[in-house]
Design goal:
With 829 residues, the protein is of the alpha/beta class. The protein has a 6-stranded mixed sheet with strand order 5-4-15-14-13-6, covered by helices on one side. A 6-stranded mixed β-barrel has the order 19-23-20-22-21-26. Strands 10-9-8-11 form a 4-stranded parallel sheet. Strand 21 and strand 22 form a beta hairpin. Bound molecules: ligand MGD (2 copies) and molybdenum atom. Keywords: Metal-binding, Molybdenum, Oxidoreductase.
Length: 829
């Protein structure tokens, strides 16, 4: 091919294209709502490129110091953001509604394509039938019943559905925020508080020391936060990573990597507290002002060993954590003398046995050193809540007032248990109290009787104890929802499947986490918003999600309540009608009724002008830091909504409630963070080195998120899967040698919960005695080979959730667990 020909072809492809913008905001990367520039032609996506709404044409290094402090930087997507094109046209894409014929589960039954009419009529019919037959508490949403919400969107008007407490991400960290700091994360989600605990990325420039404790931002918090960490390091901040893996962030950002045995973080934190207490190196002024004194003394006595005879010295922590006492001492001294410190204890180490104690201890250390609420500091809890920098437009959907309020009936991580144990309750094998305790059901709530599951995610494989999850889906009588691809385990258990639209590109539906199309920037940088437009046409018979819910609502007679403004809009007019609602919302915002925009220096463009570059961004004057909105207030009002109004090292709520009697929470919880390898009811946790089964399953497994998947999304993406990486189990050379394994060998990783087969990645990036498998790989069953621990067939791809148990004892907050004990050996023996 000649040069001219290549250039000619390229020009032709890009001739007459139109530019639109959307946002890569899956429930992956949590908070990075990266801006994607899309070139489209005749309803097709031609190419994807990065945000050019600001500093276009400049390499990032050329952005001025002032612009960096102001957060006036691009939000560029990573490789995953660029790989979506491959998803849209994938051969495995489901293009028509499907109906199951025959039984559920891999190898059973099959799908036939049906009409939309039939699919919608069937679902609506089943909803009416099930409500009549089983009452309102027979339907659950496999993942979206979280944070005391109900995932069934029609529940408030159809009068059917439950809410659940807990979540997959941050329950372990938010528990301590509530107990010790009085910050109510659930309330914050529901808009009931004006306290903000997060930080804005440029505030990292104020930090002298940044501690990434179980956080790999270059992978898991892509976008402004990880970029600012790199810039902070360049400007002299020291960065320490505490993680059993030598992560991308450890490699690229860190001055020091502290490899810690997974799940032992609480021991290290207590040893750090020991050094601070015993050497008196903490911020007395801050403690006097903000910390409740009795609790401070109670924790001191525990840490010093005055209450249990065990001083929590660095020497005590050494054999537990595998970190030398000298290293822990050195860390404690550096920590105490490096103010401001951004110590960021993240979710993963809290998603395990005793994890909440560790998260809580991290918050208390930040309080003790006066780093919890200062520029350059960090509250270290959920860390996601920052106030928006400007008012954002929002659509007036005019939904009717809810007529039914779904009660909180169970813990979402106990959903499989709720289904599997229900027949035992019904037959009298277990009593009501036991059932409630097993599923985290509050004493006065109705009991779940789940017969129908809405599946809009990868429930079985993206959540612990996958085999049990699959069984629970099999036990449900009727499952329906949306799915994108053939080849996903979730599909195998569904009765009616709606072809899933890719809402980032193919519709103007609300985003997965409920955000409207005026998508604001992430926590950490909420100084912009964009209009995330529909980019290309939908393939096959794929239709918008909101349209589908509205059609079901019509069949139930509640469309005028659920979606009055679109109830009578035809499918052909749907996208335009939604666009018009956003237009109206924009105009209402641009009219600036309160004068706030003017005060902020925002001069809104007319809608048609705005659409050419639909991003509004304003400079950050002074970066936000945790609790700033209270700390700088004129009056001395405490930001801490604890019983005492201070930071409670010993939580008074827990003292008063005696969590041991709270069956809802299932088990004991101390008011102070403690190290407690003695387990509730004499039962050791599944992920603990102290579990006797560690003799059989000696490797401690962690299952982090990866740089090439957003949970289970993108696992089959050809651009990523075949070109970027190898999904493999990380092992240290010592552990591999012991097992006769070489890099690339195919191994079986197993325990009593399941077995997966996958290649081994032998690397000194993994500390000895531990292993890691990135989560989100799609279960690929070998149906001919069923075993006791793999009743649906061996997994040939490597879904780590097969290896993780769902037991929470004595874990009280009901978070998702992501760690376990395993053994690995060469496959084929
Ligand atoms: N690329 C990408 N990013 C994502 C997501 C995604 O799917 N893909 N998902 C997003 C979502 S919804 C969430 S909630 C977050 C989750 O965010 P995290 O919970 O932070 O994610 P993980 O990757 O599980 O864990 C982070 C690090 O903790 C380490 N770790 C595991 N166990 C321990 C331990 O016991 N002690 C210590 N010290 N370290 C430990 C892991 O090795 C890993 O490097 O990520 C978000 N970001
Ligand atoms: N072992 C282990 N397990 C984990 C974690 C871990 O770190 N380790 N992380 C946990 C965390 S923090 C979370 S939040 C959960 C997430 O778990 P899930 O919420 O189950 O997330 P996904 O697995 O990505 O499943 C989401 C699915 O929704 C569908 N979907 C996504 N976008 C669209 C769309 O635009 N339209 C339609 N119709 N469908 C769409 C796709 O089929 C996609 O696969 O996983 C948890 N599981
Ligand atoms: Mo999450």
């Amino acid at each position: 091919m000649t040069r001219e020909r290549v250039i000619g072809d390229l020009s032709a492809a890009h001739d007459g294209t139109e530019i639109k913008y959307t946002c890569c905001a899956q429930n992956g990367c949590w908070d990075a709502s990266c801006i994607v520039r899309c070139e489209t032609k005749d309803g097709e996506l031609v190419s994807l490129s990065a945000d050019d709404s600001i500093n276009a044409g400049l390499p990032r290094e050329d952005v001025s110091e002032e612009a960096l402090w102001q957060g006036m930087v691009q939000m560029r997507p990573c490789a995953m953001g660029h790989a979506w094109k491959g998803e849209l046209n994938a051969e495995t894409r489901i293009l028509h509604p499907l109906k199951r014929i025959g039984g559920k589960g891999p190898g059973n039954g099959h799908f036939v394509e049906i009409s939309w009419e039939e699919a919608l009529d069937t679902v609506a019919g089943k909803l009416v039938e099930f409500k009549e037959k089983y009452g309102p508490y027979c339907i659950a949403h496999s993942v979206d019943d979280v944070f005391e919400d109900c995932g069934f969107k029609l529940a408030p008007w159809f009068g059917m559905g439950m809410a659940a407490w807990g979540d997959s991400s941050c329950s372990g960290t938010t528990c301590g925020e509530k107990m010790h700091l009085g910050f109510d994360m659930v309330g914050a989600f529901h808009g009931n508080t004006d306290v903000c605990v997060g930080f804005e990325a440029p505030d990292l420039f104020n930090s002298k020391l940044i501690v990434l404790w179980g956080l790999d931002p270059l992978v898991g918090w892509y976008g402004s936060v990880s970029y600012y960490m790199k810039l902070a390091a360049e400007r002299g901040a020291q960065i320490i990573v505490i993680d059993p893996r030598y992560t991308n962030s450890a490699e690229t950002l860190a001055d020091q990597w502290l490899p810690i045995r997974p799940g032992t973080d609480i021991a290290m934190l207590l040893a750090v507290a020991y050094v601070l207490y015993s050497e008196g190196i903490y911020d007395r002024e801050y403690v006097d002002r903000w910390v409740e004194p009795d609790g401070f003394e109670a924790w001191r006595r525990y840490v010093m060993g005055e209450t249990d005879g065990i001083p929590k010295t660095p020497e005590w922590a050494e054999p537990i954590t595998a970190l030398p006492a000298e290293t822990i001492r050195g860390f404690a001294n550096l920590y105490a003398t490096s103010k401001p410190v951004h110590l960021h204890f993240y979710y993963a180490p809290a998603k395990r046995h005793l994890g909440e104690y560790a998260a809580n201890a991290a918050m208390l250390l930040q309080a003790m050193t006066g780093n919890l609420s200062i520029p350059g500091g960090c509250e270290t809890g959920c860390s996601l809540i920052t106030p928006p920098r400007m008012p954002f437009p929002s659509v007036d959907w005019q939904q009717a007032a809810p007529e039914y309020n779904p009660p909180v009936c169970y813990n979402i991580q106990k959903i499989a248990e709720a289904i599997i144990q229900r027949p035992n309750l019904d037959s009298g094998t277990i009593d009501e109290e036991t059932y409630r305790a097993l599923i985290g059901s509050p004493p006065a709530s109705p009991l779940p009787n789940i017969k129908m599951m809405i599946v809009e995610n990868q429930y079985p494989i993206s959540h612990h104890e996958t085999n049990k999850r699959m069984k629970s889906l099999e036990m449900c009588e009727f499952n329906w929802g949306f799915q994108w691809h053939y080849g996903q385990a979730s599909l195998e258990f569904m009765d009616i499947v709606f072809p899933g639209v890719n809402m980032m590109f193919e519709s103007r539906d609300n985003y997965q986490l409920g955000s409207e199309r005026f998508m604001y920037g992430p926590n950490g940088m909420r100084n912009y918003f964009l209009y995330a437009d529909k980019i290309c046409e939908r393939p096959g018979e794929v239709r918008p999600i909101h349209w589908v819910h509205t059609e079901i609502a019509k069949r139930l007679g509640i469309a005028e309540k659920y979606n009055p403004r679109l109830a009578n809009v035809s499918l052909d007019e749907w996208d335009d009608a939604v666009h018009e609602l956003y237009h109206e919302a924009y105009d209402a915002w641009a009219a600036d009724p309160t004068g706030e925009l003017k005060a902020l220096g925002i001069e809104p463009k007319p809608w048609n002008e705005f659409l050419k570059m639909p991003v509004v961004r304003i400079p950050i004057d002074k970066p936000f830091y945790p609790y700033k909105n209270y700390m700088e207030a004129e009056e001395e009002k405490s930001p801490f909504a604890t019983l005492s109004g201070k930071i409670e090292f010993s939580s008074k709520t827990v003292e008063l409630l005696d969590m041991r009697t709270q069956t809802w929470y299932r088990g004991g919880l101390e008011p102070i963070p403690v190290y407690d390898p003695a387990y509730m009811e004499g039962k050791p946790a599944n992920d603990s080195f102290y579990n006797p089964k560690a003799e059989r399953y000696p490797l401690s497994l962690v299952t982090p998120v990866s740089a090439y998947r957003q949970h289970a999304c993108l696992d089959a993406n050809p651009q990523l899967r075949d070109e970027c990486y190898r999904h493999a189990i990380w092992m240290s050379p010592v552990d591999a040698k012991k097992r006769g394994l070489k890099d690339g060998d195919v191994a079986r990783a197993y325990n009593e919960f399941g077995e997966v087969r996958m290649p081994v990645y032998v690397t000194s990036r993994m500390m000895p005695g531990t292993a890691a498998v990135f989560h989100g790989a799609w279960y690929t069953p070998k149906i001919e080979e069923k075993t006791e621990n793999m009743p649906y067939g061996l997994d040939l791809r490597g879904t780590p959730n097969f290896l993780i148990g769902d037991e929470h004892a004595p874990h009280i907050v009901g978070a998702l667990l992501t760690a376990g004990l395993i053994e690995v050996e060469r496959a084929g023996r």
